[in-house]
Amino acid sequence: MSYAIVGFGKIGQALAHAFARKNIDVAVASRRPPEALAPQARAIGPTVVAKSLRDALEADTIILAVPFGEHREVAKALPSWEGKIVIDAMNAFPVPEELDGLPSSAFVAKAFTGAKLVKGFNHLVAATLAADPIVQGGHRVVFLSSDDEDATAPVAALAKQLGFAPVKLGKLNEGGALVQARGRTWGQLIFQDLFKKEQ
Ligand SMILES: NC(=O)c1ccc[n+]([C@@H]2O[C@H](COP(=O)([O-])OP(=O)(O)OC[C@H]3O[C@@H](n4cnc5c(N)ncnc54)[C@H](OP(=O)(O)O)[C@@H]3O)[C@@H](O)[C@H]2O)c1
Q1: Is the four-CA dihedral 77, 112, 57, 34 of positive or negative sign?
Q2: Integer distance in angstroms from the first to the last C-alpha of the chain?
Q3: How far does the centroid of ligand 1 lie from the alpha carbon of residue 1, in Å?
Q4: pTM to 2 decimals?
Q5: Model pLDDT for residues 117-175, shown as the tens digit of each residue
Q6: What is the pLDDT of residue 106?
Q7: CA-closest candidate to residue 151, choices 172, 127, 130, 180
Q8: Would you state the torsion angle of the CA atoms of residues 35, 155, 46, 129, taken in this order, to the nearest 10 degrees?
Q9: I need a surface site. Which of 86, 151, 160, 175 has the fewest CB within 10 A?
Q10: Does domain 3-197 have CATH number 3.40.50.720?
Q11: Is the separation of the CB atoms in 27 and 51 below 8 Å?
């Protein structure tokens, strides 16, 4: 598997720290050229490599860490998303428009035609997400939900590799609603910094 993080702000950098901590290669990109991101990427760790958006999107698995309203711009950068896994770490805040009555991640999925979308890594504030997920003898929980059942397993495997304890919540409009933030309405699991002890 190859990985990219699109958006290199608070959440993108927090996730980059998680990859660097485990020496897992990850490309990072934003609208700025790679040279502009490279010093910060290098400062996080040698496995974090700044790339152009187009080059970063060659990865199999792409984490969206851009402001919600920007996801469609990212989607336009590839002619086809077939075969890709997209992890939606965004929260729909502020809400720029109606979401056609869909969960925010299902709305995002519409823009990434052909990709398999998993909602995850969105429920913690950036500083918590950036910190070592092994705490108090347990692993910090990340919640995963998806309407593409076979996409959840590889994302759960990644979360584990990064040191988190993945908890699968089922479909976007079921368990996913518990981790959905929409404007100032927050699902009940948003901001819950939970740990799972080794079994
Ligand atoms: N901050 C938190 O604690 C937190 C917690 C949970 C979830 N989230 C969610 O995570 C997402 C990112 O939040 P953030 O706080 O990390 O925001 P941020 O600090 O403002 O960073 C946003 C990043 O996205 C890049 N970007 C913007 N438009 C882009 C585009 N069209 N293509 C590629 N890159 C683009 C920006 O870089 P350039 O300007 O260089 O393009 C910047 O690196 C949001 O959806 C937010 O709701 C945030």
Answers
A1: positive
A2: 27
A3: 23
A4: 0.97
A5: 999 999 999 999 999 999 988 999 999 999 998 999 999 999 999 999 999 999 999 99
A6: 96
A7: 172
A8: 90
A9: 160
A10: yes
A11: yes
Identity at 59, one-letter amino acid code: A
Q: pLDDT averaged over the chain?
A: 95
Q: What burial class does residue 24 get, using C-beta atoms within 10 Å of its C-beta: 0-12 exposed, 13-18 middle, 19+ buried?
A: middle
- Which of 11, 105, 112, 186 maximizes ligand 1 atoms within 8 Å of its Cβ, making it the mutation to test the pocket? 11
Confidence of residue 97 (pLDDT cuts 50, 70, 90): low
Residue pair 27/142 in contact (Cβ under 8 Å)? The answer is no
> How many angstroms is it from 137 CA to the middle of ligand 1?
31
Residue count of the chain: 199
- How many angstroms separate the alpha carbon of residue 198 from the centre of ligand 1? 33
90 CB within 6 A, ligand 1: yes
